[in-house]
Predict the 3D structure of the following.
Amino acid sequence: MASHCLVVMAVLFIFNTAALAQGATGVQDTTSVGEGQKWNVSCSGYFQVKASTGKQGFSLPFSKFFLDGRLGKKLSATLELRPFDGNPIQKAYIGYSLNPLATILAGQISNPIKYIEPQPEENKFTSYALYQHYVANPDDIGLAVYGERKTFLYYVCLVNGTGRNTPEDNQAKDVAGYISFTPLSAFCLEIAGQTGKQPTFLRQAGFIRGTFKPLSALEIQLASMGRTDLKEWGWYASSSYLFSWLSLNTRLHRTTQKDNQEWTVGIQANDSDFKFTVDASFGRRQHPSFAAVMQLYIKGKE
């Protein structure tokens, strides 16, 4: 816990230094730190309001606030908050870029296995079944290295394996990695994996996904994923067709858990200030469900 608090304090110190040095009140600030160096600090975010049939009714599924700072081309700091969550600090890390092929992150960082599906701010559906089910700890405390070169991107991390805002409870660590390869503009292959020894079991998880864009407006995804401690695997196929600001989306998702199969269809409207998603889900062993999500963006001044 002490190491985690130090990281958060360091990130907050960087942002406070930038703000106090100039007394800025705006959401975006450029503050001189030294000769030839300036802190660029910006904030953004979004919040979601969801209405769904069944027991949930109205909810705030995902709301996030991002605070990013950068000093020159090398040093950066990020603080990501979920204000309506029991653990509001989702990410808090410091980054140092050695070169385009290697940037080091230290603090509370993302577990790359979470990229099994788009993050809430980018998702085309109202539900996050895959994200919540196959990812044990979407954010964790540790170290990471990532980089990219033309068509290749990688992300590797060493983390506690205990989750957000949680200190280590054993000597073992989790190792996770993600690679993305885009040999063609119309095709992208992604592979991610995680392994870690817990006190009573060995946890391993992974996924592989292919994204195809046969047309500029059409995107098709095929993915398979699994998790050993749950003795479960699944797959999904999704498609999205874009009409200017409106997209039509569909996804078929199946897991070995109770032979569950779910088909979701919906539409999404996108604007620079908001996103509205409405869809319907039909399952083999469940009643049809309907949901709508309004996502409003909080953006810094240009």
Notes: Helices lie at 2-22, 129-134. Residues 2-22 form the longest helix (21 residues). The CA atoms of residues 82 and 240 lie 28 Å apart.
